[in-house]
Amino acid sequence: MTLPPADGNWGRWLADRCSRRLADARAAVESLTSDASGAREPLETIQLWNDVTIALGDALSAATVLIQVHPDDSIRSQAETAAQEAKRLATDISLDRAVYDVLAGVESAGLDRAAARALRLALRDFARAGVDGDEPTRRRLRDLSEQETVLGQRFSKNIRDDVRSIYVEPSRMGGLPQDYVDAHPPDHDGRHRVTTDYPDVLPFLAFAHDREARRELYVAFLSRGWPDNDAVLRELLDLRDEHATLLGFDDWASYDADVKMIGSAAAIGAFIDEIAGAADRPGRRDRDIVLHRLRHDHPDAGAVDRADATYYAEVIRRERYGVDAQQVRRYFDFEKVRAGLLEVTGRLFGLVYTPVPEAGRWHRDVAVYDVAADGRALGRIYLDLHPREGKFKHAAQFDLVSGVSGRQLAEGVLVCNVPRELLEHRDVVTLFHEFGHLIHHVVAGGHEWVRFSGVATEWDFVEAPSQLLEEWAWDVDVLRSFATDESGEPIPAELVARMRAANDFGRAYQARTQLFFASVSYRLHQGRVDDIDALIRRLEAEYDLFAHVEGTHFQASFGHLETYTSAYYTYMWSLVIAKDLFSAFAAAGLFDAATARRYRDTVLAAGGSRDAAALVADFLGRPYDSAAFTRWLEASTQPRAAPRSA
Fold first, then answer.
1. Which of 322, 556, 560, 623 could pair with 229 as two cysteines, CB 3.0-4.6 Å apart?
2. Distance between alpha carbon 338 and the CA centroid of its chain, in Å?
3. Are 577 and 465 in contact (CB under 8 A)?
4. At what angle are helices 135-161 and 42-69 packed, to 10 degrees?
5. pLDDT-derived band of residue 38, with 50, 70 and 90 as boundaries?
6. Backbone angle region of 3, left / alpha / beta, with phi > 0 → left and psi within -120 to 50 → alpha
7. Per-residue model confidence as pLDDT tens digits over 230-257
8. Which run of H or E residues covers position 172?
9. What DSSP element (H or E) covers 377?
10. Does the structure show a pLDDT above 80 at 641?
11. What confidence score (pLDDT) does residue 645 get?
C-alpha cells in the first residue's frame, strides 16, 4: 500500500482508502446475495465473503492506525469517524439475514479443511452478532454496537489526550539521570516540568529521591482520564451488559469468554485465584523486603504502596544485586537497540529487513522496512517508537493491512513510547515483546482466508508469542551482540547475570498486581456495577500486595478496558503457555535453526488456521501445561538475606 509523505494530504488519502474499500465491501455483499438460482459453487460463495471481510478490514485498519498515531488532531478525528462508519457497516452485515442465509446454505462437504473452517467461524460470528434475533432485537444490537464503538473511542481518546504535569524545583530532581534532567530544562519559574507520558513517568518513579514528588506524579499518572472516563466507562459497561444478555449470556464476561481458550467466565475467576494463590507467599516475602527497606528511610511507614514500590525495588536491586539501572542504561543506545532487535529476530526467524527510506509515513520518526523470508516478500513494517503529542500513550502493534495470499502483503505498525537516546533495560524488553506481535502479523500473512491472517488466534493466546520473544532480551549473548557502551565495549556478562538475578526479585508481587488488573477487567464485566471506585478498592486489597494510593482512579486510565474488555487475564494465561514454549528453545538453544523455523512455521505462520492449543501441541509434541510456568514463578522464592542498611 502506498502512503502519503508526512506532509502529504492525509485527509484525502484516508477518505479515499476508507470510502473505496467500504464500497468494495458493499459490492461484494450485493454479489453474495444476488444469486437467486443458487447455482454458485460453495467455494465461490466463501470467496465472496472473503472479499467482504478483506475490504472491511482494510478500511477499519487504516482508520484505527491514524487514530492512534497521526500528529494532526483533525486527521485523528476524521479517522474516528471513518472507523465508526466501517464498524457500522460491519455490524449491519453481521445482522443481515440475507447474507447469513447464503452462507448457512453452503454445502461444506466438498470444501477443504481451511475453507470449511473459514465458513464455520463465519457462521459462528454471525450467531454471536445476534443474526437469529427478531428485527427489534437486531435493531437494538445494532444500536448497542454503534454506541459501544463511540464510547470506546472516547474512553481511549480521554486517556491519550490527558497529559498531566507536575512542576518540580531543581533541588527535588535528585537521583534522576543527568540526561533526563537536561531533557527537562527549568521553565521561567525555575521549575522542571515532568509529564505523565511514559518516558517521563517511569524513570521518575524509579529514580527520583524526593518521595512526595514521586507520589504527586504517581497520583497524576493514575488520574488520567478522570473524571470524564468515569461516566464513559459506566455507560460502556452498561451497554456491554445489555448486549450480552440480549444474546442469551449471563453477562459480558460470559459472552467474551465463550470463544476463547479459557472457555467460560467462571474459569477466568478460578484462574485468577489459582495464580494469586501460587504467587502469594513469595510475593508477600518480597513485598516485606521492600517495606523493610522503606522503613529504613521512613521509620513511620505503615505500609508500602505503588508510589514507593518502584523506587525501593530499584534501591534493593542496587544494594543487594549490584544492579544500577542508570548505569545499565549506558549500554542501551536506542539506535543500537533497534538495529539489534532487527538482527536478532532476523537471525532467529530467517527474516530479512530492508529499509525503505522513500516510503510514505505519517511522521518523520517512523522507520519503514520491507520484510522477506526464504526469498519471498512477506510485507512491510512501520516502527513508530518515540512519544509525541496526541499519540497513543502505551505500546502496541496495529494492523495496517492484513496479508492475503496472492492479493496483498501484510503491513503492520509498531507503536511504542521509548526515549530517543538511552533506554532502560525494561524498554528493551518492551520492544522485543511488541515486536513479537509484529512478526506474528507479518509471518502469518500468507493465508487465502483473511479470517486466519496475522494474529488471528484466540484472544487469550495472542500475548504468548510476544512474551516468548522477551526471553531473548535477557540472554547474555544476545545482549552483548548489540548492547555496548559509549566506547563500544559490550555489556559485561557478569552484569547481565546480576540483572537476571535482580529481575527475579519482586516477580511474584508483580504477578499479583497483574492479577489485580485482571480481576478489575473481569469483575467490571459481571453485571452492573454501582460503585466502580469501591470495587476497585476491594479488588486492590484482595489481589495487589501494595496499599492503595489515595487520590488515584486506576480504572479511568486503564486503556485495556476498551480493547481487552473482560479478558485482561490474557497476559497471565498467555505467560503460562509462553514459558512452556520456551522450554523447547531452552533445551535446543536460543538460535537452534530447526527449533526456530519449526516454531515460526508451526505456530506463527499458522495464524488462526487452527486452534491455538493444537498449534502449541504440534510444536511441543504434547499438550501445553503449567509446569514451566510454576518453576519460573517458584524460581523467585530462593532465600535472601535481609537488605543491608545504608
1. 556
2. 19
3. no
4. 30
5. low
6. beta
7. 999 999 999 999 999 999 999 999 999 9
8. none
9. strand 376-384
10. no
11. 37
Task: Give residue-wise pLDDT tens across range 399-418.
Answer: 999 999 999 999 999 999 99
Count the Cβ atoms, other than its own, within 10 Å of residue 12: 10
DSSP 519: H
CB atoms within 10 A of CB 146: 16
What DSSP character marks residue 482?
T
Report the pLDDT value the prediction gives residue 642, as an integer from 0 to 100: 42
pLDDT given for residue 39 in this prediction: 77
Residue 121 grid coordinates: 467461524
Q: CA-CA distance, 133 to 572, in Å (whole number)?
A: 36
What is the maximal distance between C-alpha atoms in the chain?
A: 85
Q: Which three cell numbers stand for residue 393?
A: 500513550
What the block records as the C-alpha cell of 182 is 537536561
Instruction: State the cell numbers at 475.
Output: 540472554
171: DSSP letter = G
Write out 402-456 in H/E/C secondary structure.
CCECCCECEEEEEECCCCCCECCHHHHHHHHHHHHHHHHHHHCCCCCCHHHCCCC
Q: Among residues 512, 607, 540, 527, which one has the least CA distance to residue 566?
A: 527
Would you call 646 helix, strand, or coil by DSSP? coil
| φ/ψ of residue 357, rounded to 5 | -65, -25
| C-alpha cell belonging to residue 468 | 516468548
- Predicted TM-score (pTM) of the model is 0.93
Q: Are strands 376-384 and 410-415 parallel, antiparallel or unpaired?
A: parallel
**3-class DSSP assignment, residue 169:** coil
- For residue 564 the three cell numbers come to 481487552
Q: Read off the C-alpha cell for 124.
A: 459462528
Q: What is the pLDDT of residues 413-428, one digit of tens each?
A: 999 999 999 999 999 9
Contact (Cβ atoms closer than 8 angstroms) between residue 422 and residue 179: yes
User: Is the separation of the CB atoms in 619 and 578 below 8 Å?
Assistant: no
Convert 555-617 into a string of H (helix), E (strand) and C (coil).
Answer: HHHCCHHHHCCCCCCHHHHHHHHHHHHHHHHHHHCCCCHHHHHHHHHHHHCCCCCCCHHHHHH
Q: What is the pLDDT of residue 108?
A: 87
For residue 644, give the nearest of 317, 285, 298, 320 by alpha carbon: 320
pLDDT, tens digit, for every residue of 160-171? 999 999 999 999
* Residue 71, pLDDT above cutoff 90: yes
